[in-house]
Amino acid sequence: MPTQKTFKRRVRARMTKTGESYTSARQQLLRKADPPAPADPTVAEAPAADGAADPTVAEAADASGAVAPAAHEAADPEPTVEFPTSEEAVLGATGRTYPAWFAILDAWGATGRRHSEIAAWLADEHGVAPWWRQSVTVAYERARGMRAVHQMTDGFSVAVTRTITAETDAALAAFTDPAIRSSWLGDVNVTQRRTTAAGSARFDWADPPSRLVVFVGSKGPGRSTVSVSHERLPDADTAAREKAAWKERLAALKAVLEA
Hints:
Blueprint: H1 4-18, H2 22-33, H3 41-44, H4 55-64, H5 70-74, H6 87-94, H7 98-108, H8 115-126, H9 130-143, E1 151-152, E2 155-164, H10 168-176, H11 178-185, E3 190-193, E4 200-205, E5 210-218, E6 224-233, H12 236-258
């Protein structure tokens, strides 16, 4: 039998993958480990004693700091969704897991609200920082079927990051210098836009019409992190293709800069 600590890690891993509450994830794992015996009708009809502790409520409070509504806990497991950040990251930054935020937003009635309303409420009522309130809002919309993976308010967006053994200036020049850019990206039709942000570059991407944002940061002496965000894509299929393509493109960039 796994230890309690190991089992809790498995529960939280399932929460991250599926968007389930702690209780739902725990129950699913317990069912897999120990299928229920045939029901005894004499037991099934016996009423619970008044005031008896409900273990599902205790577990829900342990996971989130706030007990989710009973109807939400009894719901079928949510479909697998891709969250903007890991469960550990959002917990460390906001003090709550994604399922805990989902329960709070459900109670508020967020499924009937616009993206901007949800983000503003998280800021006003819970003091969530700008970047993290967007992350929580996007994750909630995905989990509740209000937004597809990669979908943003102005289209679809994907992001890919690669660490490269090169100075930051050289990594950024690989995007801004047309001759270097063509050596790894090919003859794509892009137009550079003006930006004043250090270590970044912005482009209009012609096919499909979209926007490319590049940020290069230092990873230590002689090493850089290159982050590419391809934004305003027309649909989910295009976003998926571009994400796969950017993984290959950054691999080609790495090969050129490290040659």
